[in-house]
Amino acid sequence: MSTDKTTPLILITGHPCTGKTTLGQRLAADLKLPFINKDGIKEQLFESLGWSDREASRRLAPTTFALLYHFLTAQLRAGQPCIAEANFDPAFATEEFRTRQQNFPLRIFQLLCYADGQILFERFQLRSESRERHPGHQDHLAYNEWRTRSNGRLEPLQLDCTLYELDTSDFAAIDYKHILNTMRDFLVTS
After folding, report:
1. Cα–Cα distance between 85 and 14 in angstroms, integer?
2. Where are the beta strands (DSSP E) in 38-183?
3. Phi-psi bin for 102: left (phi > 0), alpha (psi -120 to 50), beta?
4. pLDDT score for 143
5. What is the mean predicted confidence (pLDDT) over 129-138?
6. Least packed by Cβ within 10 Å: which of 80, 109, 115, 185?
């Protein structure tokens, strides 16, 4: 925890299939922090409301993000650090987080995951075919969408924060211990 009165917030962002959720869950467990993630919320909505097709999944996106920001704000209001993970679109999310920076004494660490576009497509296809992901996402209907992605990197959110960019093209090459120690330092540094 922080030694001053600011609340540390770790944001994990990047395109789908960059390993954000896996990394976030592991960090949350090792750092003993709440983990608020978009897909976890969306899958709860699928279970409560049902699902039908890809368009229905897309229609749930605004509600999913609204709930993520609601849960995040509750943590910040209580002065509790947490990890928030999603494919945050800078066009929308930058303002959401700037507003929170204005309303709360907040320090942000943005971890931007990226990988080669072709690798992301292959991961997306494997994930869809594995049937390990909730069927409500309807990923198997999004292959054409993914084939057109030439860049495997989202732009970072334009925030007053620490930015750490992580190439996840080769999961075996990631120095998790270094990332974990970096996060630990962030949590205790003013």
Report:
1. 9
2. 82-85, 106-114, 162-167
3. alpha
4. 57
5. 61
6. 185
